[in-house]
């Protein structure tokens, strides 16, 4: 009988940790996570789905890895279920969920640790919604050493590999520290004066709305399309269609590095003659954008809408 792979997920700032067992329902996904351990990441919390923790995992394979077993509605899964997604998230259900979406489970928190998981979930919600004090998750093999690294892919073409190197360095730099561009934006320092009548919240809202799909859907979608066998010609064309407009807008709003990296990516396209080079570059852009998206969700002033509460339908 195979010994279950046990993972420890800890939040040192909260003094809490849980142990989870990976299972074989989506063995390849679970193995990809296992191979990437240990790592650290900014802990996030679902904002519309309910009692759900998630963070960006520095695992390129999650973008395209096959997941043969899916649950049609994650709301029905037991508390403590671990999910891995193509959004590069490691998620944990710790209570009631409201969003009826399919999901790919890879394991579960052991029963003895469910109370600690609930305590962690409530504390992370307070950090994301109110205090804005970052909570870092530490994920490692149970009984193993901690640590952290962002994996670096390589490309045969020198220009592409150099761009990947710069993306990797920037992603590592902001992985556990909020990017100064986002800090400036959230504190109202906007060089372009984006925000009609000197408003800031409007700009923050649009930046949040563009950053997440640029990483999740555009760049991440290009990685998946490449692994699904789309030829390089159409991949290049789809890149030109999907990524320039939102990236240029984000640059105008203050995320100038996003626009700079995107322009360099577009400039490289015609010189990419190898599918692996294309995929490596798009994977690093995806991870960089997903990291930015995580910080933006943490920094966003959600508490400003505290007076807006859901109204229950009449009985």
TrEMBL record:
<dbReference type="Pfam" id="PF18631">
    <property type="entry name" value="Cucumopine_C"/>
</dbReference>
<dbReference type="InterPro" id="IPR040602">
    <property type="entry name" value="Cucumopine_C"/>
</dbReference>
<feature type="domain" description="Cucumopine synthase C-terminal helical bundle">
    <location>
        <begin position="160"/>
        <end position="299"/>
    </location>
</feature>
<protein>
    <recommendedName>
        <fullName>Cucumopine synthase C-terminal helical bundle domain-containing protein</fullName>
    </recommendedName>
</protein>
């Amino acid at each position: 009988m195979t010994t279950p792979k046990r993972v420890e997920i800890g939040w040192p700032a909260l003094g809490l940790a849980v142990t989870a067992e990976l299972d074989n329902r989506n063995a390849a996904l679970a193995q990809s996570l296992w191979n990437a351990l240990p790592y650290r990441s900014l802990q996030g919390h679902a904002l519309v789905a309910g009692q759900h923790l998630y963070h960006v995992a520095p695992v390129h394979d999650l973008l395209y890895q096959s997941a043969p077993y899916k649950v049609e509605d994650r709301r029905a899964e037991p508390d403590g279920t671990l999910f891995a997604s193509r959004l590069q998230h490691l998620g944990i259900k710790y209570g009631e969920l409201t969003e009826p979406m399919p999901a790919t489970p890879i394991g579960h928190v052991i029963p003895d640790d469910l109370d600690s998981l609930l305590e962690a979930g409530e504390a992370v919600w307070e950090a994301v919604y109110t205090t804005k004090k970052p909570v870092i998750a530490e994920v490692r093999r149970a009984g193993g050493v901690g640590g952290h690294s962002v994996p670096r892919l390589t490309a045969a073409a020198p220009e592409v590999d150099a761009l990947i190197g710069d993306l990797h360095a920037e992603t590592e730099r902001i992985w556990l520290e909020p990017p100064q561009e986002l800090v400036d934006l959230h504190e109202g320092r906007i060089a372009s004066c984006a925000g009609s009548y000197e408003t800031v919240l409007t700009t923050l809202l649009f930046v949040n709305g563009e950053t997440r799909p640029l990483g999740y859907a555009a760049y991440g979608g290009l990685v998946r399309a490449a692994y699904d066998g789309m030829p390089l010609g159409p991949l290049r064309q789809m890149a030109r269609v999907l990524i320039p407009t939102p990236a240029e807008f984000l640059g105008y709003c203050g995320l100038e590095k996003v626009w700079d990296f995107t322009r360099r990516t577009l400039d490289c396209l015609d010189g990419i003659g190898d599918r692996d080079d294309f995929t490596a570059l798009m994977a690093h852009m995806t991870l960089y954008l997903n990291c930015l998206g995580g910080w933006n969700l943490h920094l966003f002033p959600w508490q400003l809408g505290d007076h807006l509460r859901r109204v229950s339908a009449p009985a």
